[in-house]
Specification:
By secondary structure, the chain is of the alpha/beta class. Among the domains are: 352-565, Rossmann fold (3-Layer(aba) Sandwich), CATH 3.40.50; 621-734, Sandwich (Immunoglobulin-like), CATH 2.60.40. 32% of the residues lie in helices and 18% in strands. It has 22 helices and 27 strands. The strands form 6 sheets. An 8-stranded parallel sheet has the order 9-6-5-4-3-2-1-10. It has a 6-stranded mixed sheet with strand order 11-16-15-14-12-13, sandwiched between helices. It binds 1-deoxynojirimycin. Residues 87, 131, 184, 263-264, 488 line the site of 1-deoxynojirimycin. 1-deoxynojirimycin (NOJ) is lined by residues 87, 131, 184, 263-264, 488.
C-alpha cells in the first residue's frame, strides 16, 4: 500500500479505532474469552476495545492465526489486519542454545542462521514479529536474565545484535519466512542493582552510552522493526515514560523510526515506580515519550480517549503512533496478505525438520566451553569404562527458561544420544539425584517444579550412582541449575549448584577421583567446589533440542569444544559484578603484592575464576609476542598488529585469537582492556600461522571528557591472546 493510502486510512479512522491500534492484547483473550476477561475488565478494558486491538501477543499456530485474523478483519470497520507477536528467543519449536551460549560460540553468523531458521518455523506457524534479540549488556551473574543476553562485552553484543536482527528479518519483512525483530529492553535493563530483576539501574551517562547503548544501536542500524522499552529507570525516570531517552536518544540520535512497544504492563508500572500519579498520567506520559504500543497494561485503551477528548493529550501524538503501526503492517505485507507466511502444511514440514535439528546440534556443539582439562582427561576414550552420572544424564529439559514453544519431549537426552551414537562404548548411566534440593521451592513458579520422590527413592538413586562410579575408570557428572532458576524473575543470591548436587559431586569424587563435570546452566556459577573435585569441566549451558547428541560428540572426541566465555565466571558471588573491561584504580593490585593499601579483597582474589574470552580445546596453542608494523600512526593511518599462532598439541584444533586495546592516558579513565576484534584459526598439529589485525583510529574512539565520540592522541597498548587474561603487550603512539 503506498503511503498516501495509509494516510487516507488513518484519516478515516475513528478515535476508538486508532486507540485500538496502540493496544496489544494477550491472545488468550481471543481464544479463551471469558476466563481471561476478568483481569482485563479490572484494567478497564471492554469487549469493544478487544475487537479493535491492533496487535496480539502469545497466540500461535497457522490455522488458529488464520481463523482469528479472518474473523477479526471481517468485523473491523476498516478491515485492518492484526500483527501476531511472540517471544521466539532461542528457537521456535526447534530450540537452539540459549543466547548466552550462542554468545560463547563467538560466531554471530551461526546465530544469524539460528534466527533465520527460527523465523522460518515461526512464520509458517503464522507469527509476524518476535521479541528478540535481547541485547542488554550483562555484568551481574545474579540476574536471571543473563541467559537471554550474549554477555558482558559491548563489541561482541553488537555483532550478535546485528546478526540476529538480520537473521529474523532476512531480505525483508514481507517475506513468507521472515519475522520482524524487536530489540529489547531499551535501555540498560541488564544492570539492575544487586542483580535483582526489575530493580533500579544506575549508570553514569558515559557508561550508559559507551557500553550499554551500542548493541541496541547495532540492531537499529540493521533496521530492526521494533524496540521494546525496559522496566527499569534510566536517570531516575522509568524508561517507558522517559521522553529524553525515547524521543531524543532513540529516535533522534540513534535514528530509530520503527515501532516502540512497552514491555508487559510497563506503562501501568510507572505508578508503582512513584512517577506517574495514576493510569491516565501513565498513559499520557508514555504516549508523549513516543511509546506506540501498550503491551498489556490497558492504560491506553482505558484512558487515551478521555485524555484526548479533554485536550490533555494531542490527537496528533496518537496519530503518530498509529501511523508507525500501520507502516509496520504495511512493511509486513499484511494489507496485501494478512496471513503472511501462515501455512499449516509447511508448519508441519519445517518444524523440527532434519535441517533445523542439524543446525541446533551444530550451534550447541559450537557453544560448549572447556574450562578445565587436566591431563587431557577429555575426550573420553573408547577403551575406558565410563559412568555418566547426575540429574542431567536423562533430562529432557535442556531448553532453558525462555522457550515457549519448545517441547522438552522433542529433546534428545545425553543418555539417549550416547546409547545411539556410542553404542559400542562401555558407558553406564545413573541419575544420582534430582536437580533441586528437596526443600527448594521457586517462589511464584507454581506447580511446574518436579518432586524429588520419597527418601527411599532418593537413596536408591544415590546408591546406584555410587556403584556406577566405583566400577568405572572415569566418571562424567552432568550437573546444573534447574531451568527455572534462570530467565525472567529468576535472580539468585547464591551462585552455586544446588546443595544435593554438590554433595553428589563430593561423594562420587571421593569414590572415584577421575571425574569430569558437564554443566547445564544459564548464568556464570561459583565453580570453586566443582573445580576442586574434578579433572575436567565442560560448560554446556542450556544447549537446546539437540544438546544430548552435541555433547556426546564432543565428549567422545568427534569434535572439540570451541566456545569461549562471553561472561566472566566469578571466583564467588562476593566479586559480582565482575567483568574484564574494568577501570584501573589508583591503587592497582598485582598478586602477590603484600602492600595493605591496594585495591583488593582480604579473602578472595580479584580475578574471576574463569575470565571472559577463555576456553580450552583438545589441543594447545602457543601465541607469540605481539609485533607492530610501525610504532606510530596518524588518525588516517592504520597499524597492523600480528602474532604467530602455533598448534603445539597433537590434534587439529581451533583457537579464537583476541585483540584487546588499552588507552594508557586519556581525558577520562579508560578500561584496562577492550575487545576490538578476534579471529578463529584452525591448525593441524605443528602448523603455525600469522594472525593480523588492522588497528584504525576509529577503534580508539570513546566519549571524551567533553562528551564527544573521538580518539585522543597518546600511547595505546595492544594485547593479543587467547582470552581477556592476556598480559603480553606492545605499544604505539597515536599522533
Ligand atoms: C516480559 C519480558 O520482559 C519481555 O522480554 C517479553 O518480551 C515480554 N514479557 C513478552 O513476553
Amino acid at each position: 500500500m503506498d503511503h498516501k493510502k495509509l494516510e487516507a486510512l488513518l484519516h478515516d479512522m475513528s478515535l476508538k479505532e486508532k486507540i485500538g491500534q496502540v493496544f496489544q492484547i494477550s491472545g488468550q483473550l481471543l481464544v479463551e474469552d471469558a476466563a481471561a476477561m476478568g483481569p482485563m475488565q479490572e484494567m478497564g478494558v471492554t469487549k469493544e476495545d478487544l475487537a479493535l486491538a491492533g496487535t496480539v501477543l502469545g497466540v500461535t499456530g497457522a490455522e488458529r492465526i488464520q481463523n482469528i485474523q479472518k474473523e477479526y478483519m471481517e468485523q473491523h470497520p476498516h478491515h485492518i489486519p492484526l500483527i501476531f507477536m511472540l517471544d521466539v528467543i532461542n528457537g521456535y519449536r526447534t530450540v537452539y542454545p540459549i543466547p548466552l551460549a550462542q554468545g560463547a560460540s563467538f560466531q554471530p553468523e551461526l546465530s544469524k542462521e539460528c534466527a533465520r531458521m527460527a523465523a522460518r518455523e515461526a512464520a509458517a506457524a503464522g507469527l509476524h514479529v518476535t521479541f528478540s534479540p535481547m541485547t542488554d549488556l550483562v555484568r551481574d551473574a545474579r540476574w536471571g536474565r543473563v541467559m537471554e543476553s550474549t554477555g558482558e562485552d559491548v563489541y561482541l553484543n553488537g555483532l550478535f545484535a546485528k546478526a540476529m536482527t538480520q537473521g529474523y528479518q532476512g531480505d525483508g519483512l514481507a517475506g513468507a519466512e521472515t519475522l520482524g525483530a524487536c530489540v529489547k529492553h531499551f535501555a540498560g535493563y541488564g544492570a539492575p542493582d544487586a542483580g535483582r530483576d526489575y530493580n533500579t539501574v544506575q549508570l553514569t551517562e558515559r557508561t550508559f552510552r559507551e557500553y550499554y547503548l551500542p548493541a541496541y544501536q547495532a540492531a537499529v542500524d540493521a533496521k530492526v522493526a521494533l524496540v521494546m522499552t525496559s522496566f527499569n529507570t534510566v536517570n531516575d525516570i522509568p524508561a517507558t515514560v522517559n521522553k529524553t531517552l525515547m524521543r531524543d536518544i532513540l529516535r533522534k540520535e540513534m535514528g530509530f523510526d520503527g515501532v516502540l512497544i512497552s514491555d508487559f504492563g510497563a506503562i501501568g508500572e510507572t505508578i508503582a515506580h512513584g512517577l506517574s500519579s495514576d493510569r491516565a498520567d501513565a498513559a499520557r506520559r508514555a504516549l508523549e515519550a513516543g511509546v506506540d504500543i501498550d503491551m498489556m497494561s490497558g492504560a491506553y485503551p482505558e484512558k487515551l480517549e478521555q485524555l484526548i477528548r479533554e485536550g490533555q493529550v494531542k490527537e496528533e501524538l496518537l496519530d503518530e503512533a498509529v501511523m508507525r503501526i500501520l507502516e509496520l503492517k504495511n512493511k509486513l505485507g499484511l494489507f496485501e496478505n494478512p496471513y503472511k507466511g501462515a501455512d499449516a502444511e509447511k508448519e508441519e514440514q519445517v518444524i523440527l525438520c532434519p535441517e533445523n535439528r542439524a543446525l541446533a546440534r551444530k550451534a550447541a556443539e559450537q557453544s560448549f566451553v572447556l574450562l578445565k582439562n587436566d591431563g587431557d582427561f577429555l575426550p573420553l576414550k573408547k577403551e575406558e569404562k565410563i559412568a555418566f552420572i547426575g540429574p542431567y544424564v536423562n533430562r529432557k529439559q535442556l531448553l532453558g527458561g525462555w522457550s515457549f514453544l519448545g517441547d522438552a519431549a522433542d529433546t534428545v537426552t545425553v543418555e539417549e544420544a550416547a546409547r545411539e551414537m556410542a553404542s559400542d562404548w562401555s558407558i553406564t548411566f545413573a541419575q544420582g539425584c534430582q536437580v533441586l534440593d528437596p526443600e527448594t521451592r521457586l517462589v511464584g513458579f507454581g506447580n511446574d517444579q518436579e518432586t524429588c520422590g520419597s527418601p527411599d527413592d532418593q537413596q536408591a538413586l544415590w546408591e546406584e550412582a555410587c556403584d556406577a562410579a566405583r566400577e568405572a575408570d572415569k566418571v562424567v557428572l552432568f550437573l546444573g541449575e534447574h531451568f527455572l532458576q534462570t530467565g525472567e524473575a529468576a535472580s539468585r543470591g547464591v551462585l552455586e549448584l544446588p546443595q544435593v548436587q554438590q554433595r553428589l559431586l563430593e561423594e562420587i569424587s571421593s569414590i572415584n577421583p577421575q571425574v569430569a563435570v558437564v554443566l547445564f546452566n544459564g548464568r556464570p556459577l561459583d565453580l570453586r567446589l566443582v573445580n576442586e573435585h574434578s579433572q575436567a569441566i565442560l560448560e554446556a549451558w542450556m544447549p537446546g533440542t539437540e544438546g544430548g547428541p552435541a555433547l556426546v560428540r564432543v565428549l567422545t572426541g568427534g569434535s572439540e569444544p570451541v566456545g569461549r566465555l562471553p561472561m566472566s565466571f566469578p571466583y564467588c558471588v562476593g566479586q559480582v559484578p565482575v567483568h574484564y573491561d574494568e577501570f584501573p584504580t589508583g591503587r592497582p593490585y598485582h598478586e602477590p603484592d603484600q602492600n595493605r593499601f591496594l585495591s583488593k579483597y582480604l579473602d578472595i582474589p580479584n580475578r574471576p575464576l574463569y575470565p571472559f574470552g577463555y576456553g580450552l580445546g583438545y589441543t594447545a596453542f602457543a601465541v607469540s609476542k605481539v609485533r607492530l608494523d610501525k610504532q606510530e600512526m596518524t588518525a588516517d593511518e592504520t597499524i597492523t598488529a600480528s602474532v604467530t599462532v602455533q598448534n603445539v598439541g597433537h590434534r587439529t584444533g581451533t583457537d579464537v585469537i583476541q585483540l584487546y586495546l588499552h588507552d594508557v592516558s586519556a581525558s577520562v579513565v579508560r578500561p584496562v582492556k577492550q575487545l576490538k576484534g578476534y579471529q578463529r584459526v584452525t591448525l593441524e598439529p605443528g602448523q603455525e600461522t600469522q594472525v593480523s589485525f588492522e588497528i584504525s583510529e576509529e577503534m580508539l574512539r570513546f566519549y571524551t571528557a567533553d562528551g564527544t565520540w573521538a580518539s585522543e592522541p597518546g600511547v595505546f597498548e595492544v594485547m593479543i591472546g587467547e582470552s581477556s587474561a592476556v598480559e603480553q603487550k606492545a605499544e604505539f603512539l597515536l599522533r
